[in-house]
Amino acid sequence: MSEKKSAPTPVAINLHSKSRLLAIEFSDGASFRLPCEYLRVFAKAKEVRTLERPVTGKASVNITAIEPQGQYALRLTFDDGHDTSIYSWDTLYDLGANQERNWQAYLERLQEMGYDPEQRGDEGPKKIRLLYFTYLVKQLQKESEEVELPASVSDVTGLIDWLRRRNPDQAHLYRDGSFQVTVNKQFTEPFTRIDNGDEVALIPTSPNAPVRK
């Protein structure tokens, strides 16, 4: 008789407040990045589950506290005051594994209600300050600039892609691995969120510019 396989449990839980993401790694090797908005929308508290309409207006919500509940769950406190939802390991794993399907169903529900999914919160054009260093200063002939980003640019990856498209002749200057990025003087992940008013620095890892291919 085979032994029952134990359910995956978290081995690492990290809140990325700037990006409003809860990153979770499980014992079976699965890892998920769960947006705070997603966790708030799919909160398990009775007052949320029994609502006739889905939760809206939480695009900017963030998690302010994470409290372990024994060895089986987390209690999350959100900055909109919601603090009654407890997320078991099974719930968090299920939310991660089915994130795309759940979110698409949520957006479709909003459309059925006549609620524009693209107007969920504070998304819109962003004005940021870009700082350049070493060879970027020489190649771009500037140390900094103020730019307005399209609404589609939401994170560091999107910003770099936009910079490459903005001037294809200089795209090689932004080659992967040739520089590091800070946002508001903090080193970033590719998924680090870009917000209006941020200061973003591009810091080359070598004094020599990448050669254009």
Please, could you describe this protein's structure?
This protein is α+β, with helices and mostly antiparallel strands. The protein is 23% helix and 28% strand. It is built from six helices and eleven strands. Strands 8-7-11-9-10 form a five-stranded mixed β-sheet. Strands 1-2-3 form a three-stranded antiparallel β-sheet.
State the share of residues found in helices, binned by percent. Answer: 10-25%
* Main β-sheet, spatial strand arrangement: 8-7-11-9-10
The average pLDDT score comes to 90
**How does the overall form come out from the CA principal axes?**
elongated
Structural class: alpha+beta
**Beta-strand segment tally:** 11
Rg, Cα atoms, Å:
21 Å
| Name given to the CATH architecture of the largest domain | 2-Layer Sandwich
How many separate structural domains?
2
Keywords, separated by commas or semicolons:
23% helix, elongated, 213 residues, alpha+beta, 11 strands, Ubiquitin-like (UB roll), 6 helices
Write the layout of secondary structure elements.
Blueprint (H helix, E strand, L loop, with lengths): L9 E7 L4 E6 L4 E5 H6 L4 H4 L13 E7 L3 E6 L7 E3 H9 L1 H14 L13 E7 L2 H6 L3 E6 L6 H11 L12 E5 L2 E2 L11 E6 L9
Parallel strand pairs: 7-11
Antiparallel strand pairs: 1-2, 2-3, 4-5, 5-6, 7-8, 9-10, 9-11
